[in-house]
Design a protein that fits this description.
Blueprint lengths: L10 E3 L2 H10 L7 E4 L12 E5 L12 E4 L2 H11 L3 E2 L2 E2 L3 E5 L3 E12 L4 E7 L14 E5 L8 H11 L3 H20 L2 E12 L4 E3 L3 E5 L18 H8 L3 E4 L4 E5 L2 H13 L6 E4 L6 H13 L4 E12 H14 L6 E8 L1 H10 L3 E3 L2 H8 L4
Parallel strand pairs: 15-17, 17-18, 18-19
Antiparallel strand pairs: 1-13, 2-7, 3-4, 3-7, 5-6, 8-9, 8-11, 9-10, 11-12, 11-13, 14-16
Helix pairs in contact: 3-4, 7-8, 8-9
């Protein structure tokens, strides 16, 4: 699942060039580079360079979003060909031009918030340059970092031994981990990731990429980030104008849920059952008719193959929500399957209303998840 905007469920996802600027401030080695938004800003070439689209999507290389240049003309041509490019309805407005690295080996390293443990976790692997989800578990080092103690070199030495690093690389790696943890703490991050962490032919470790995700609740401490112009799709902008927390994803199951935490859990559960969510849409704690109906309108515009509604009612009355779902189904003449999880106040009455109108309803989330992944 790929996220395609700055804001998502209470986090701020920074562009690569912004992450690398932060890395430089903390002393983490990164390639020399600069950002341009027009060909006129391109500087005279001194070394072979990589030209990288600045979009919040993974797999840019496979999508043609990264090019290489060895001459001034190749550089200008690369910048021209990337600026203005559409990638899943997102337009490339900036490219990063940086020195091309001589790559001997690629590693992976990150520090990520482990919500279950309520602590940061170090994740490292000698298999970098690919999505970490595709790496076998036995090839991945994971260690929880006690936030009251912080990072200690013994954790880095365990990781270094696990990855089979030479003494010289291990020394560099330990220094880098210490600085990466400082980024995590100092920038109020939920994730700091380097993939790949490159070992160059002359034996240096350099962050070839940078992913930094910041907790939005800490943004009052980070006024330096421009958060007024988020990269959003037309449908996301439409949803924002109507007051919805809505994010387009790359799947085929439309999701409507109440509460950001429940919506996130719904996406995770769908992925666990091999389902691919098409969107994130948080209704909040409401049974307002117009809000629910308009939510269906937005999700339908994303053209999913099925819709999953996950309502865990507190003050929300489930029978009211059920009737609104029935009304929306009739109003929009919905032809795709709708599966509903309805739990809370008046839940039995709500599920009965849905069943009487041919809409499958469940009291628990997982049966609803399993069902929606099989209805198309």
């Amino acid at each position: 699942m790929t996220l395609c905007n700055h804001w998502y469920g209470g986090i701020l996802n920074l562009y690569e060039y912004m992450g690398k600027d932060i890395f430089r401030q903390y002393g983490i080695p990164v390639p020399n580079g600069y950002v341009v938004s027009s060909v006129d800003e391109v500087r005279k070439l001194t070394n072979p360079v990589a030209v990288k689209s600045q979009i919040l999507l993974g797999g840019r290389g496979k999508a043609g979003g990264i090019k290489f240049a060895k001459t001034d003309q190749e550089l200008k041509d690369a910048v021209k060909s990337l600026l203005g490019t559409k990638v899943r309805n997102l337009t490339v407005t900036k490219v990063l031009i940086e020195d091309m690295l001589s790559i001997k080996h690629e590693y992976y390293v990150s520090i990520a918030l482990n919500r279950s443990a309520r602590s940061p976790t170090l994740i490292a692997s000698a298999m970098g340059g690919v999505e970490i989800e595709t790496v076998p578990d036995e090839k991945i080092f994971k260690r929880i970092i006690d936030p009251s103690l912080g990072y200690s070199d013994f954790i880095g030495r365990e990781a270094s031994t696990f990855m089979g690093l030479s003494p010289d690389l291990s020394k560099q790696f330990l220094d880098l981990l210490k600085k990466l943890y400082n980024v995590y703490r100092g920038e109020d991050a939920e994730l700091v990731e380097i993939n790949p962490l490159v070992e160059t032919n002359d034996g240096k470790l350099i962050a070839a990429d940078a992913k930094v995700v910041i907790d939005s609740d800490a943004m009052f401490r980070h006024r330096e980030f421009d958060i007024k112009d988020p990269e959003k799709t037309p449908l996301e902008l439409k949803a924002e104008s109507k007051g919805y927390a809505f994010v387009e994803l790359d799947g085929d199951i439309g999701v409507i849920a109440n509460g950001a935490g429940l919506t996130m859990a719904t996406l995770d559960a769908l992925l666990l059952h091999k389902g691919r969510p098409r969107n994130f849409l948080d209704l909040g704690g409401t049974d307002n008719v117009d809000i629910v109906v308009n939510a269906f309108d937005l999700v339908l515009e994303a053209k999913p193959k099925a819709i999953l509604v996950n309502i865990f009612g507190g003050v929300t009355k489930c029978d009211t929500v059920a009737q609104v779902i029935v009304d929306a189904n009739k109003k929009f003449d919905i032809k795709i399957p709708i599966v509903v999880r309805l739990s809370g106040v008046h839940e039995e009455e709500g599920r009965q209303i849905l069943k009487e109108n041919g809409i499958e309803a469940f009291s628990e989330m997982m049966p609803a998840i399993e069902r929606v992944t099989k209805v198309f």
